[in-house]
Specification:
By secondary structure, this protein is an all-alpha fold. Helices cover 74% and strands 3% of the residues. Strands 1-2 form a two-stranded parallel sheet. The protein is globular. It starts with a helix and ends in a 19-residue tail after the last helix. The C terminus is likely disordered.
Length: 238
Amino acid sequence: MFSTFNGPFKLMFEDLKKQTIIILSITVSILILFSISGYLIGENFTGAIFGPIYGFFLIYPFLLYNKTYKYVLSLGGTRRQYLLSTIINTVLFIFINTAFLNVMYQLNLYLSENNGNPVHLQHVGLLFQSDNPVLYWWADVVLCVFLFGVLLLVNSLWFYLGTIRLLIGITIFGGILVVWFTNEGMGKIIDLFINHLLTFIHILGFAGLCGMALSYLIMRNGPLERGGHLVGISFKNN
């Protein structure tokens, strides 16, 4: 079993490695551009460099079933192997990307405090009002897990059910959320964010992990085409 899993795992690892090189190169380029701008302006410059990494894990879930999914299956891999390879590798590269991001942030912070760089970088960890670099890194990890996991679930449902069924489901679910927010939900969320920020962040991370687990359960016997399992039940394949 390990030998058959090795192929899909290596394929996803290489795919994410290439994407990571590109994303981190863009991140470094943005930091260099900010530094140059700060020196040219002649005063402190404020910016953020987490956008490319967060954006990648926001978009990547919607790319998975377009190419690598069918490619792995065509080479003899199973759906379960593909999903496990994807989830394990993505979590691994979330740790790698966010670690690199925070090394750059801490290096820039050190240079800024010693007048070596006029750029002040914004970071999600600043919300905690703490100087703990591990907390900053962990906040990035948890939020990236949330983004990837929840959107992987959305894409898995989209692929399994098709466009029309997903839109119907989103409409019903969205209506329930609106009613809950209107009554008491929004106040609870705001209170949790303001007074228990660390707990709030971890709830988001847990939601991301649940999204990954549900995606595995949904797609472990998933169709080859979008909406393929439910063709002819009530709508055409979308």
